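Z., the sequence and structure:
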Amino acid sequence: MHHKRRAGYEEGSLPYGRICVKLGLTPNILTAMSLSLAAGAGVLYWQRWWFLGILAMLLSAFTDMLDGATARASNSGTRFGSVLDRVSDRFGEFFILMGILLSGVVAPAWVLFAQFGVLIASYTRSAAESVGGLKTAAVGVAGRLEKFVLLIAGATGEWLLPGYSLMTYGVIIVGGVSMTTALQRLRYTYRQTHSEDGQ
């Protein structure tokens, strides 16, 4: 499940967090950098500058990884920082999908499908952890990184093989795996809580 992959990813990223600490970078600065790069990727996709958009998305994903790694390496994570990170991630995903929409290469209905899927997967996790009281509900077939990979693959297809609607396929798959992830998180939450609720 997704949370097992995340544990390995967090351990592997810790050395990069230590480097950021030495450079004087804070988690919130890195979160802002990640959001700015995601917004830049959206603008680049809007203009159909696929290669540059791909680079911006890769850098956004990298700095997003660094903010958590830096918080863990410096033991400086805060509750506000965690909230800021999650909200910034949703804004970043919105900017990227909006750029894809404005590019005109994907039908608006499919972009809406992907956007709703991304939001409902995130909301299901947040509800499970806040209302449901779970320590973490980061389970499911795809997390943010996997969705980024799918969108980058779609953008690469538009760049190298224009006319084959590969971005459309990428967006549809992102919507599908996001919906699946939301259902998996609901199922996981039920299993974790139903005995406590006496059901």
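Residues 2-193 form a domain with the Four Helix Bundle (Hemerythrin (Met), subunit A) fold (CATH 1.20.120.1760). The mean pLDDT is 90.

Let me know what you think.
H.
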